[in-house]
Amino acid sequence: MTILPPDMDEARFAAFLRELGAAVGADWVWSGEKDMFPYRDSFSPVWNTEEERHASAAVAPANVEQVSEVVRIARRHRVPLFPISTGKNFGYGGPSPNVTGSVVLDLKRMNRVLELNEERAYALLEPGVSYFDLYRAIQERGLRLMVDCPDPGWGSPVGNSLERGVGYTMPYFRDHFGAHCGMEVVLPDGEVMRTGMGAMPGADTWQEYPYGFGPDPSGLFAQGNFGVVTKMGFRLMPLPEHYQTGLITVPKRRDFVKLVEHVNYLNDSGLIGEVEYGSPLSVLMGDGDFAALATKTGGPSDTAMDAAASAAGLHSWQVELQFFGPEAATRANWNYAKDRILSAIPGAEAKAGDDFPLPASEAELENVTQPYPTRIKRHRSLGVPSLVEWKIVRDDGHIGFFPVLPRTGEAVFEVQRVLGDAMKEFPSLPPFFNALTTPLMWHTHTFQMVFAPSIKHDDPAHNAISHEAMKKCVAVAAEHGWGDYRASPIYQDDVSATYGFNDHILRRFHEQLKDAIDPDGIIAPGRGGVWPRRFRT
Amino acid sequence: MISRREMLQWGMVAPALASVSQIAFAGELPALGTGLLDAILLDDRLSPAAGWSALPAGVTTLHFAGDVTQIWYETIDPAWRHRGYVLGGITAASTLFVLETLAHQQGRRVVSHVPLNATPRKPDHSVRWIIAPHHRSVMP
């Protein structure tokens, strides 16, 4: 069956495709079921159901001039476009659009590293550049610059940052959108705009001062649909001289509150990189009695958890710390962190981990010599893109809900209890929220938790459970002020609706902008929950 | 580890790939000039006890052990940025998923996929596969 853009018949669609082919070359237009398989969301929980979103075609321009022309053609025909960079946004919709029938605007041919500046520590990239491409360019030129990459590293710095994706090194660089500096955008009328100092002809500071003058619209293009980003600048971390690791454990359940306070201080003072929280008690989850305690409705008591920990001879919580910088500084910072926490929490223990100069060797990247069990994935922590993380994916993929919560131990306990109880409605899913669930600190100074039920292509009943659980989790979390930070197109309206302050004034503001800037609703209608007038009910 | 029987099955199939008119996958492979595999990717963790000796001579073999990142980064990705290049493999299913995803971006697709274990649904079962150019932008 032919998928068509909204309000278009086959004859006009064929004419539209011919115009696209004339603009970019016939080899760079995809259409028809046989060719469109790369543009399906292979992680979709509604795979092979009527709810699944399908693109009608794809077009891959080679440069910004062709992007402008494609946008103008789409505007003339009123065909929605869905821009993608490398299309690896798995768990969040991948390459598939919000509106069935949209044409994917695949920016993969725009894959040049336009500039790498070691002395001033920045890069200017096209959207088709992957983290692997950026890393290769740095290595080939022998530059001492570090990449902050997600895992796997096959995504695009432009695409990932526009999704507000995150990384694993120092705080400033983990916020990928926050670390951007300057962008070039093709607007819905085909005009090319540059933000920040890029708006001043002749300025050589486009990648050094992000704001320029007047209102800064760059945020509209992150999780937004106000234009097509064709260039983006990024601040890069100079490759540190040394890397130091360490582990701190605390004995009692309630010690987690103080532990978080001190780790927050270290993070906010710029002394540590990404941290990995965990619980030594995880090894007990194979024991039925302990698992029942950890997943108890209403949450277990501190007394019961402390008793279980004591009986097992284990501490309740741990945190792995990472330090980057000159060797003397990393040692001093580790000693400071250790002394600060151990003096504040009775019974806390510390153990120094591996330390070595950077860049790391292949053996050091494998992280097999730590004197304690470690959750750190060294490739990503040290800015080396890898594909190996894919092994954690179960079944045929997963969907993702990462609620944002206050950066306190008390908030973590509350999320464990509230969402743990809410998800008991779906007993076939693993207990993502239990008494041992720890927060992520991937963003600069934000806690998030993880809910990522799997999907299976050959089990629609299982997918339906994951789908329903996701919607319930989003709703319950929002009741407590824990909002999602990023969502797949099929959940973007649900998530957008939870940001409803003052009768959804934020969404209404976005809609006003959308109607003014993109009156024909060409660029990714529905993305971020923002619908143009023609698609609003 | 795959069995010797499974290895022999690959050994019987691979020479047949030398001729498009004979191959079992003639219906799946696109119309190539020669129909030859350009390379076979092998996860050495799956090597039969006798090694990969049943493979036909003259076919380039690429080896890795678990993590496909380096071989993809150094060899497969550069090859996929040009036209042509038919790659076969015996790997874990997770490796195939990674390569398949990367192949899609380069106009290629999996044209043959044969599970090699008795219980394919178990985590990371072994598979034998072929990835070949599909879209006209990368056909030789």
What report would you give on this structure?
- The complex is a heterodimer of chains A (537) and B (140).
- Chain A has 537 residues and is of the alpha+beta class.
- Helices cover 31% and strands 15% of the residues of chain A.
- Chain A has helices at residues 10-24, 64-77, 131-140, 157-162, 171-174, 255-268, 288-294, 302-312, 327-344, 362-366, 378-381, 409-422, 460-479, 489-498, 501-517, and strands spanning 29-31, 57-59, 81-84, 103-106, 113-117, 122-125, 145-146, 180-186, 192-194, 228-235, 237-238, 242-250, 276-278, 317-325, 349-357, 404-405, 447-448.
- In chain A, the strands form 5 sheets. Chain A has a 5-stranded antiparallel beta sheet with strand order 5-6-10-8-9. In chain A, strands 1-2-4-3 form a 4-stranded mixed beta sheet, with helices on one face.
- In chain A, α6 runs antiparallel to α9 (327-344).
- The radius of gyration of chain A is 24 Å and the shape is globular.
- Chain B is an alpha/beta fold and 140 residues long.
- Chain B is built from 3 helices and 5 strands.
- In chain B, strands 2-1-3-5-4 form a 5-stranded mixed beta sheet, covered by helices on one side.
- Chain B starts with a helix and ends in a 7-residue tail after the last strand.
- The model of chain B is unreliable at 11-34 (pLDDT under 50).
- Chain A binds chain B through residues 27-28, 30, 35, 37-38, 42, 86-88, 108, 132, 136, 152, 154, 385-388, 390-391, 393-394, and chain B through 66-69, 72-73, 77, 94, 97-98, 101-102, 104-105, 109, 123-124, 134-137.
Concise account of the structure shown:
The complex is a heterodimer of chains A (537) and B (140). By secondary structure, chain A is α+β, with helices and mostly antiparallel strands. Chain A has helices at 10-24, 64-77, 131-140, 157-162, 171-174, 255-268, 288-294, 302-312, 327-344, 362-366, 378-381, 409-422, 460-479, 489-498, 501-517; strands spanning 29-31, 57-59, 81-84, 103-106, 113-117, 122-125, 145-146, 180-186, 192-194, 228-235, 237-238, 242-250, 276-278, 317-325, 349-357, 404-405, 447-448.
